[in-house]
Amino acid sequence: MKFNKYILASALALALSPVFVSCGEDELGETIFPDVTDEVDPNSATYKFDTWLNQNFRDIYNLNFCYKMVDVEADMNYNLVPATFDKARDLALLTKFLWFDAYKELATEEFLKEHGPRIIHLIGSPAYNPQTGTIILGLAEGGIKVSLFRVNDLDVTDFDQLNEYYFRTMHHEFAHIMHQTKSYPTEFNTLSNGRYDQSNWQDRNGGIVASLGFITSYASSETREDFAETIANYVTRTEEQDNFLLWCADQNWYSGDDETDQSVAYCYYYYKNEKAQTDNERTYTLRFVDDKSRNLMTVVDDKGKSYASIAEVEAYLASMEEAGYKMYPYEISDEVDGRAIIEQKRNIARNWFKDDWNINFDTLRSIVQYRQANFDIEALRQEIENIQ
């Protein structure tokens, strides 16, 4: 069965638990309501990690970082497994470095104390929804708790995977927490009015939705997800990835013989050999493909070779013309300027950050980009090892 990814946010249910050290099991006391100590057992195998979590999350932000999965904090409708210690440790380190420290650097520690989540809950496995063929990567519940799934797949050497499964999700969920506190302008809701598809967004091709003004297929599901995706993707995508997205948004896309099928998309250009006698000898050169493992956009030629940047695509098109093929634009247009709409949405988010939060959206992006490109996981792990 094919599963697509999505991020479910802003759940109405609110689960608020007492703050324990790391959501582990406590020994039973004399009553069912025992006093709970904040102290960590120095003889525990997880003493250093638990102490580091207390020092960097609980003591500063009043945040309970739950790395030992707690069933009452998870949705019992899903078959879930706990995160492994090593994966949880690395994700906790990177959560601080790439999320909390990024905002702290720009907006001060007090900002996160006031507006950050109170619980981060790690779950080792993804949560599959067989009815829709989707996977939940994260949850932001009531502005209080953020749950992160698929922790056991963490690969600190794979930048794109880190972004897709974890850090884009973190920024997405935090955007939900922020707009639940201060609503974003209603003007945002009008930019793509009539183009959302809450039921079938997972079947929409990324090229088609980009040309309609959506940053991702999930953004095309509803306005609040569009807003959170607009923020999260702008902050975490590299300059090259972002430019390629906007290039794709500039193109027209043909979805094949059945115009109602938005799961495939053929690019704006096609070519034919000058010796060709009929239109049937023309071949579509490029096809938009979503890399479902990383939510990256690629364009594939008729021989199956992938291109993931503007430079790669332009070099391919130039090579075809040099080989004697004539390039033709595809005439059908969706009559939507996808790039312009994406830029309008970003400007609304940019002004919202400035006016409501006194945060420079572009500076935040620069900080996140720098940190993504320059973290040293071994040095971060040493912070825990240095705990006495």
Tally of DSSP β-strands? 13
Tally of helical runs: 11
Calculate the terminal CA-CA distance, rounded to whole Å: 49 Å
Mean pLDDT across all amino acids: 80
Characterize the overall form: globular
| pLDDT < 50 runs, ≥5 residues | 1-36
Radius of gyration: 23 Å
Main pleated sheet: 4 strands, mixed
How would you describe this protein?
The protein folds into 2 domains: 4-24 and 39-181 and 358-385, no CATH class; 243-329, no CATH class. Helix 4 packs across helix 6 (223-236). The strands form 4 sheets. The protein has a 4-stranded mixed β-sheet with strand order 2-3-7-6, with helices on one face. The chain has a 3-stranded mixed β-sheet with strand order 1-5-4, with no helix packed on it. A 3-stranded antiparallel β-sheet has the order 9-8-13, covered by helices on one side. With 388 residues, it is α/β, with parallel strands linked by helices. The protein has 11 helices and 13 strands.
Brief write-up:
With 388 residues, this protein is α/β, with parallel strands linked by helices. Helices cover 40% and strands 12% of the residues. It contains eleven helices and 13 strands.
